[in-house]
């Protein structure tokens, strides 16, 4: 009897261990749920600690802030991953992006370097050249730290590296540490960020032109390793919003960029777009909404109609125009636009081209029913009419004026027209179109439109709209346009 009892006891013990392990594993998972790991430059510790406290209190999300030198943090996140990266210099974000480790990024605060001395400036230091005086003791940041990398680079560019380096008695991995060296009297001077120095009442910060003319912009980026990109973006938006995170930075002596989004838990914006862009961007906009946790209301119409709506009082947060001239009509409402694509005007004729239409002049032959867009309602219509006028093509055979190219394609499919002037993308938007129709090339320099994207000056969400523009014009978006016949116009690096 003893052996079966022992076996049962052993099995129950194993079951207990297994249940404990599963429960413990679930608890570990639960602790990780709803938390974000943020790699943050040490110089931004004070504002970020307060912002994280406010965010945790408002949303119940645990923020794990990992502080250190910007370069050291870059090395760390390459191994350990994480959700967000906030270095003191945008160059680190560019470096991480170049390694495929970063997605979106947003500006946070402006930083200027200068000389840090004890209150009262007992050594009388006023210029960068003064740091080369014999007998001074100086603390600088290590080259892996943002302030250190910047300091050593500027000293070299200004031809002062040799003289100042002779007085450097210690280097430290973070900007806080080098300011502490001055505050405790361990050194006579250091070079540090303005806002960080202002957190130490024992010291004062002296601006020098060699550094202030090269101020740096700290930004926060979402890492590709994040398992909760929407949550990471939510916190990044909170950090950079003008009435949440940026407000804290400003209160703590940091200079913040002029632009910035108003805080909304779920932002809602409106994008006006030329209807011919719809097939290329609609699905990407839906993906952007899901990732950002926002709502993008889209209005797809002919650009003449959209301009009329804006002049009547509509104020979209962004505008993706069918042609640059239709952005110029309302350019006082928008920041300068970026041309993303081009689109060519072509002739759409019935399969087999029964009317033998191959040139603009053929559109004036008797019996040819032609469809064009209304020049008051769309960019396509305006460009078509301008081309007709400049090429001396008569308007007598125009049987239909549509509000947009899609209307003309529908009319061609219904066989109510013999030929229509449409964008190439209109003809390629649906595979059914080329089963019943075919494209005739015009090869005319006037038959070309360029599509710019622009952010509204008055929108409460300029940064969000910039990211939407980046999503619609990123390298992975290019194929969406090109398969519809658009020409990619965005210069590499924009």
Helix content: 25-40%
Sketch the major β-sheet: 10 strands, mixed
Range of strand content:
15-25%
Overall form: elongated
Poorly predicted residue ranges: 5-32
Task: Report the CATH topology name of the largest domain.
Answer: D-Maltodextrin-Binding Protein, domain 2
Write down how many β-strands occur, each being a DSSP E stretch of 2 or more residues.
Answer: 20
Mean pLDDT: 91
Q: What gyration radius follows from the Cα positions, in whole Å? A: 31 Å
Secondary structure class reads alpha/beta
The first-level CATH class name of the largest domain: Alpha Beta
Secondary structure topology:
Blueprint: H1 2-32, E1 35-41, H2 45-59, E2 62-68, H3 70-80, E3 84-86, H4 90-98, E4 102-111, E5 113-118, E6 138-141, H5 146-157, H6 161-165, E7 168-172, H7 175-183, E8 189-193, H8 194-197, E9 203-207, H9 209-212, E10 216-223, H10 229-240, H11 245-251, E11 268-274, H12 278-292, E12 295-301, H13 303-311, E13 318-320, H14 324-328, E14 338-350, E15 370-373, H15 379-390, E16 398-402, H16 405-413, E17 419-423, H17 424-428, H18 433-436, E18 437-440, E19 448-455, H19 462-473, H20 478-482, E20 487-488
Parallel strand pairs: 1-2, 1-3, 6-7, 6-8, 11-12, 11-13, 15-16, 15-17
Antiparallel strand pairs: 3-10, 4-10, 5-8, 5-9, 13-19, 14-17, 14-18, 14-19, 14-20
